[in-house]
Design brief:
Elements lengths: L5 H14 L4 E6 L5 E3 L3 E2 L6 H7 L7 E6 L5 E7 L4 H7 L5 H5 L5 E4 L3 H9 L4 E4 L5 H13 L7 E3 L1 H8 L4 H24 L6 H14 L4 E2 L4 E4 L20 E6 L1 E3 L2 E2 L2 E6 L6 H20 L6 H18 L7 H4 L19 E2 L6 E2 L7 E4 L2 E3 L15 E3 L2 E5 L4 E3 L8 H18 L14
Parallel strand pairs: 1-7, 5-6, 7-8
Antiparallel strand pairs: 1-4, 2-3, 4-5, 9-12, 10-11, 11-14, 12-13, 15-16, 17-20, 18-19, 20-21
Bound molecules: manganese (II) ion.
Length: 449
């Protein structure tokens, strides 16, 4: 059930404990199992990323606790829900405490014991770290318990700085999983290009991507799939809806899958009818040139600002050449160039290092996985843009693993050269004609590694 061997998780817990000061406790509640509607209809459950990272444990209503006493003795504890035949017939079998004991924790307790055991650990605790975001109710009750033990607010902190440091650099095992997540994502984008045609809806294109994700072993999309036809692409996070994709428009697709907990995050923009108009191609090629230049610059030691400067220079110069009046790249690209990628799509990890006077921008290092995603978003009403470019929005996004000498583009199999895209879409058109109206063009599954 767990993605990695128990030893890998044990290693991660020890690494986290080594970052914790003497007399501290770190608590990681499992993600809340959220009701979608009614009483027994829940959202697809997704474990909190920190719990996945430190244990691989998938069950809700559990808490992971790491404790380091004032003399440096360490203890790892899991609080979980016991198996229960009647409940489990409705919700699926729980692992049970006995099996959980084999996962390498020092102690496994029933979840009801959390308050009692934690109160005892808090007597040896001068600082508590609480994982935030995945389960607000559990967080609040942990904060209350800590406060009741007399811990001042300044001594109640988030775990994010600790886990961020560890999760920023991916282990060789994680890198393999992320490679697979990226290639499934890339494959789905290619499949969507085969399927795309005027008259289908954003939702239908989304379904095509999600089908390929799941058929290749991913659990689900890693985030709500963005399919944005025409002007919708100006909205950075436009969720796919019933909009009909129109002949002559571009479609922007920002979609990635979650494979064994790890996200891919890919954006492609292409013509709905399979052929770029000259104006679309000019904007597209400008963004592509900027993206390729940034990718070529990625290597250990480089900072995000340096990468952004490369992109800014190319886009600003290119826009001027295309006749845009008094516009800098930043005016048409409201988001940053990229972000950390991992268990979370926008993965944890600070973009800065040090404190006070030593505070500096964090530079890239081998083992980090990042996205590079420049874009240009031109509103239909933007009078500073030549008329033929108004209403065109383009984003191109790939996932990169930073290596010792540069970077590997994990998503390189997703077509992005205009000629490649047009060729691929022509192939798709031929396949659809052969299959007949309403048939899904599905490329074969990608082989397992
Ligand atoms: Mn992204």
């Amino acid at each position: 059930m767990e993605t990695f061997k128990p030893e890998e998780y044990q290693k991660r817990r020890l690494a986290l404990l080594s970052l914790m000061p003497l007399g501290s406790t770190a608590c990681f509640p499992a993600a809340d199992n959220k009701v979608r509607n009614g009483t027994a209809n829940h959202y697809l459950y997704r474990q909190a990323s920190d719990v996945l990272y430190l244990s691989g444990f998938h069950e809700d209503e559990s808490t992971l606790v790491l404790h380091k006493d004032r003399t440096g003795n360490c203890l790892t504890l899991l609080f979980a829900k016991a198996a229960n035949a009647e409940e489990d017939q409705w919700n699926g079998a729980r692992m049970g405490l006995e099996a959980a004991r084999k996962l390498g924790f020092d102690r496994v307790h029933e979840k009801q014991q959390l308050t009692r055991v934690l109160n005892r650990l808090l007597q040896e605790t001068d600082r508590i770290f609480i994982s935030s975001g995945a389960n607000l109710e559990a967080e609040e009750s942990l904060i209350k318990m800590a406060a009741a033990k007399g811990l001042q607010p300044a001594r109640i902190q988030s775990t994010s700085k600790l886990t961020g440091q560890l999760r920023l650099v991916k282990s060789p095992d994680e890198q393999k999983v992320m490679e697979r997540s990226a290639s499934i994502g890339a494959h789905a984008h290619n499949a969507a290009m085969l399927q795309c045609q005027p008259g289908i809806t954003e939702n239908q294109l989304r379904a095509c991507l999600e089908y390929i994700f799941v058929m290749n072993g991913a659990t689900a999309p890693a985030y709500s799939v963005i399919v944005a036809g025409g002007e919708n692409a100006y909205i950075l996070h436009h969720p796919a809806d019933d909009t009909i994709l129109a002949d002559g428009d571009l479609v922007l697709v920002d979609a990635g899958c979650e494979y064994l907990g790890y996200a891919s995050d890919i954006t492609r923009t292409y013509p709905v009818n399979g052929v770029f108009s000259p104006a679309q191609k000019e904007i597209y090629e400008l963004v592509l040139a900027a993206q390729k230049a940034a990718i070529a610059t990625v290597k250990p030691g480089i900072t995000w600002s340096e990468l952004e400067a490369v992109v800014e220079a190319i886009l600003t110069k290119g826009l001027k050449k295309l006749g845009f009046q008094g516009l800098k790249a930043g005016d048409l690209m409201p988001h940053t160039l990229g972000h950390w990628l991992g268990l979370d799509v926008h993965d944890v990890g600070s973009y800065e290092t040090g404190k006070g006077k030593t505070k500096a921008e964090r530079s890239l290092q081998p083992g980090m996985v990042i996205t590079i995603e420049p874009g240009l978003y031109i509103s239909k009403a933007d009078k500073r843009a030549p008329a033929k470019y108004r209403g065109i929005s383009v984003r191109i996004e790939d996932d990169l693993l930073v290596t010792a000498s540069g970077a590997i583009v994990l998503t390189q199999s997703a077509f992005k050269e205009p000629a490649e895209i047009e060729e691929m879409m022509k192939v798709g058109k031929g396949m659809r004609e052969e299959l007949g109206e309403g048939q899904l063009v599905v490329p074969p599954r990608i082989p397992n590694r």
